[in-house]
Task: inverse folding
């Protein structure tokens, strides 16, 4: 009897042991989380030496490009985000701006201080800027033409002279003054209200497609562009020589670029456009190199 009891007990013990956890059963796989990565603290500082080198290279490359193109070519650029500014001949102010003066006409009309534009004036303004309608410009110039010199003085355009008499297209200006005008439209001041500035910039951003060439070549995919172009044969030499100009604002992540490129003594409108876009493309592609930074790790101990 004792032998039978011992045999039964020997068979029961493993079962009890398994139930009590003294022996391990099959091990199920357990998901293990990846270690948490802690972002390394870094600090960025301007790199003036690299910026100066990049600037010299860009200005050199633009000069080389311009030297291969016909006529006179001047330009100016200002990035409102970084404060970087540069140009070549940007204060030369004897180049006709042609239809580029239409923005001036509208801004002067808004600065009269007589209240909002009436319905007719708004329609004329829209056609003058978005379609570059000359008849609309004639109509609005007749309302403000005599006070354009006062307008230029008030907004600080010291290098712009209105065209004689009814010839608004004969207005001469400099790239530096085009940038000053754009800065007023973007940043405010000089008597232009925020709604007035929004109206002008909105119309400049809706220029019809066949007139959207020029400084827009500096834009990256997704950038927003507001511009006004001008193109005309030079009156004193007839159709053999053209003035072609473009200025405006190109804004997107990390930049708010104001750019003006002016040309004259061009063999044709197409040559002027090609030159302007060549300059603009160089500037747009390499603008970011003009404000480089150095990355360094954060200090491990608090600075006293």
Result:
């Amino acid at each position: 009897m004792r032998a039978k009891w011992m045999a039964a007990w020997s068979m029961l013990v493993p079962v009890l042991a398994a139930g009590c956890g003294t022996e391990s059963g099959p091990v199920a796989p357990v998901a293990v989380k990846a270690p948490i990565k802690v972002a390394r603290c870094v600090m960025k500082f301007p790199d003036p030496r690299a910026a100066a080198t990049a600037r010299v290279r860009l200005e050199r490359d633009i000069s080389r490009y311009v030297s291969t193109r016909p006529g006179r070519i001047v330009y100016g650029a200002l990035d409102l985000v970084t404060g970087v500014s540069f140009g070549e001949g940007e204060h030369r102010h004897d180049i006709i701006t042609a239809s580029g003066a239409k923005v001036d006409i509208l801004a002067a009309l808004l600065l009269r201080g007589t209240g909002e534009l009436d319905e007719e004036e708004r329609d004329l303004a829209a056609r003058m800027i978005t379609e570059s309608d000359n008849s609309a410009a004639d109509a609005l110039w007749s309302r403000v033409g005599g006070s354009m010199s006062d307008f230029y003085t008030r907004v600080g355009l010291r290098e712009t002279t209105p065209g004689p008499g009814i010839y608004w297209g004969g207005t001469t200006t400099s790239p530096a003054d085009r940038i000053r005008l754009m800065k007023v439209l973007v940043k405010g001041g000089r008597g232009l209200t925020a709604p007035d500035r929004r109206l002008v910039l909105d119309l400049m951003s809706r220029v019809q497609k066949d007139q959207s060439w020029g400084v827009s070549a500096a834009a990256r995919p997704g950038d927003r562009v507001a511009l006004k172009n001008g193109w005309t044969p030079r009156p004193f030499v007839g159709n053999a020589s053209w003035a072609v100009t473009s200025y405006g604002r190109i804004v997107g992540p990390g930049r708010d670029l104001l750019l003006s490129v002016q040309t004259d003594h061009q063999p044709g409108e197409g040559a002027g456009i090609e030159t302007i876009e060549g300059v603009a493309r160089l500037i747009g592609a390499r603008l970011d190199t003009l404000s480089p930074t150095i990355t360094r790790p954060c200090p491990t101990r608090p600075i006293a």
User: Anything to note?
Assistant: The radius of gyration is 34 Å. The longest strand covers residues 255-266. Residues 44 and 76 are 28 Å apart (CA to CA).
